[in-house]
Write a structure and sequence with these properties.
Blueprint: H1 5-33, H2 45-54, H3 61-68, H4 86-99, H5 101-121, H6 124-135, E1 140-142, E2 145-146, E3 153-154, E4 159-162, E5 168-173, E6 177-178, E7 185-192, E8 217-223, E9 232-235, E10 248-257, E11 263-264, H7 270-281, H8 284-305, H9 317-346, H10 351-372, H11 374-377, H12 386-400, H13 404-415, H14 419-425, H15 463-470, H16 478-503, H17 510-513, H18 516-540, H19 561-575, H20 584-600
Parallel strand pairs: 1-7, 4-7
Antiparallel strand pairs: 2-3, 4-5, 5-10, 6-10, 7-8, 8-11, 9-10
Helix pairs in contact: 1-4, 2-12, 4-5, 4-8, 5-6, 5-7, 8-9, 8-10, 8-12, 8-20, 9-10, 9-18, 9-19, 9-20, 10-13, 10-18, 14-16, 15-16, 16-18, 16-19, 18-19, 19-20
Length: about 625
């Protein structure tokens, strides 16, 4: 059905307003946080690095974020906040992560991830209570840890026992909780002492059984004001592996009567509640981690441009390769994250595989490419002063960002049993839905009821065969066109090979899938999903979007296939496929863009925002 011109104009106006809102909010926060290069800025690199050396959070950082109203950005609009799309919330928190990971986690990301449990599974009363806690300045923390094998979670030794008078009593101790001494609310997972808490099955639609409730755990949403006075036990930061510079502790209970209305979902549904909520939260922290990688790469480029002694010059072949590779890797990660986060709103029934792919791939890729930059700085990468210290700090921060090896293995475990079904049914040529690869198109509200732990389709992966069919119609010729067609053909062939191997797997035998071979197939899937996302952004995204804050009509960079060829080449490298021959023009295009953004104080991610929100300086 063809839309009328009035409908088309209305849709365009809505998209423009949405894009302006997202960019406007991020720009407003950047202005509020100030120029990170300003040595007098309390959240500039100099002050943050000094606080890191003291083992503290930046002085005044919490007050600055409270003054901006950052907590309102993680509360849904109908509950009194400003949250309309997860993309906006993650971009705002990414701006904080560019300055300091610990501040961003302690003040925002931990609460956003925890609040997802209430937004997805809470009753209206639980959601209203959570919203009020956050809007009043409180923080939330999750008090359990994702374990290595898919559907298992550590609840510490917390146990729920039916009380004689009705309800439940809680005993035991939680695992270690970052930010526990400051949290005003907690999400806990407790095991039923009798092993039978009831609960319904949340089986997936594709028959894999992913995410079925085990009936032995319940999820609890607790307000600190209701807890016994001594329930929160702080732990010395020197005795814990929790996030540096964040206070940590655990909760301990002794026959404590759980307040009525504290169970999220139904009793016994704790594992399913956790898995569905984590499906939403999986790509959020990796998206924020791009901010740390952005600052690390920027500090290296600035050291190279300043011709600091001991640093490889810009004419160095290794320096050029490391900078452009890190830049391309960041774009690969951001494309996958954009599609994964937007799919939660647009294709929630299919989003489980893409959010899992983003969780297990993004942080690891950022860690690797950022680590490769250390050789550009040489021995000065070990120094603590100035930009060298900033690089070292953010490299260290990246090593602490979830999911870590255990969480990545858990994300892979959710992928493996879904691959046979998806390979048999979904990896065929089909165009994606409108807006999946756009950073500016409007998003519908999140509908948790549509989330499915086992994806019923895989529209993202279908982009590869669709691109192979339609690439000849795209306006790219010459060496770039030849390279791009070769890459798309090689990646589509790799997808066909992966499909053949996945279709040969026993779809219902989960034990046979949880093998090194099954995990290797899932690893290949994540890389091909990232390649498909890059193609989707280039073919269907915002290549001509305005860069209003720069006073230019359009950036032009995303329209140039140079970045796409470089990004796909990084995926091919990790898949063990031949990369396209080196091309001087493409290398220079990426290097020139990275250098220009650093010189003008613009971000190196897909969004190209102006840091500090003010006019660029020479």
């Amino acid at each position: 059905m063809t839309r009328s011109s009035d409908q088309a104009e209305a849709a365009t106006a809505t998209a423009t307003a949405t894009a302006t809102t997202l960019r406007g909010r991020v720009a407003a926060l950047e202005r509020h946080l100030g120029d990170p290069r300003d040595p007098g800025n309390p959240l500039g690199h100099t002050a943050v690095l000094a606080a890191d050396r003291r083992g503290e959070l930046p002085l005044g950082g919490d007050r600055l974020l409270d003054a901006f109203g950052l907590r309102e950005e993680i509360v849904p609009q109908p509950l009194g906040g400003r949250l309309t799309g997860l993309d906006t919330a993650t971009q705002l928190l990414r701006a904080v992560f560019r300055r300091d990971f610990a501040l961003g986690r302690g003040h925002g990301s931990a609460s956003l991830v925890s609040a997802a449990f209430a937004w997805c599974h809470g009753t209206p009363a639980q959601q209203a209570r959570t919203a009020r806690l956050l809007l009043d300045g409180g923080r939330l923390s999750v008090a359990f840890q994702n374990m290595s094998y898919g559907n298992e979670f550590s609840s510490g030794d917390l146990t729920l026992t039916p009380a004689p008078q009705g309800g439940w009593v809680l005993d035991g101790r939680t695992p270690l909780i970052a930010n526990a001494p400051l949290a005003a609310g907690f999400v806990l997972l407790a095991r039923h002492a009798d092993g039978a808490g009831g609960g319904d099955s949340y089986g997936g639609s594709n028959g894999t059984g992913t995410g079925n409730s085990d009936g032995t755990h319940s999820a609890l949403l607790l307000n600190r004001a209701d807890l016994p006075p001594d329930a929160v036990r702080p732990v010395s930061p020197y005795r814990t592996g929790a996030v540096r510079r964040l206070p940590a502790g655990f909760l301990e209970f002794d026959r404590w009567p759980v307040p009525e209305g504290s169970v999220l979902g139904a009793p016994g549904d704790g594992t399913a509640v956790a898995l569905r909520s984590l499906q939403v939260s999986r790509p959020l922290v990796p998206s924020m981690a791009v901010g740390c990688a952005d600052t690390a790469l920027r500090s290296v480029v600035e050291a190279v441009l300043e011709r600091a002694p001991g640093v490889r010059p810009l004419t160095s072949r290794y320096a050029r390769r490391a900078i452009t590779s890190s830049f391309a890797d960041m774009l690969v990660c951001d494309c996958l994250l954009l599609a994964a986060i937007r799919s939660l709103h647009l294709l929630p029934e299919e989003s489980s595989v893409w959010t899992a792919a983003a969780m297990c791939l993004v942080v690891r890729m950022l860690q690797q490419s950022t680590g490769d930059l250390a050789a550009v700085l040489g021995p000065r990468a070990l120094q603590e002063e100035g930009g060298f210290g900033t690089f070292r700090k953010h490299l260290r921060d990246l090593s602490e960002i979830p999911p870590g090896p255990i969480g990545a293995a858990a994300a892979l475990a959710t992928l493996v049993p879904q691959l046979p079904f998806l390979a048999r049914t979904s990896w065929t040529a089909a165009p994606p839905p409108d807006g999946l690869f756009s950073a500016s198109a409007p998003l519908p509200p999140l509908d948790p009821a549509r989330l499915d732990l086992a994806a019923g389709g895989d529209t993202l992966m279908a982009v590869l065969p669709h691109a192979e069919e339609t690439l000849d119609a795209l306006p790219v010729t010459g060496p770039d066109g030849e390279a791009l067609r070769s890459q798309v053909g090689a990646l589509a062939a790799e997808l066909r090979a992966l499909g053949e191997e996945c279709r040969a797997l026993p779809a219902q035998d989960l034990a046979a899938l949880a093998t090194p071979h099954g995990y290797a197939l899932a690893e290949r899937y994540t890389l091909l999903a990232a390649a498909a996302a890059c193609l989707g952004v280039w073919m269907y995204g915002d290549r001509g979007r305005d860069r209003e804050e720069q006073g230019e009509e359009e950036s032009g960079f995303l329209s140039d296939p140079a970045w796409l060829i470089a990004a796909l080449g990084r995926v091919q490298f990790r898949l063990g496929l031949p990369e396209p021959a080196a091309d001087g023009r493409r290398v220079e295009a990426l290097l020139a863009e990275a250098v220009a953004r650093c010189a003008q104080g613009r971000s190196l991610d897909l969004y190209d925002v102006l840091l500090g929100g003010g006019p660029a300086t020479a």
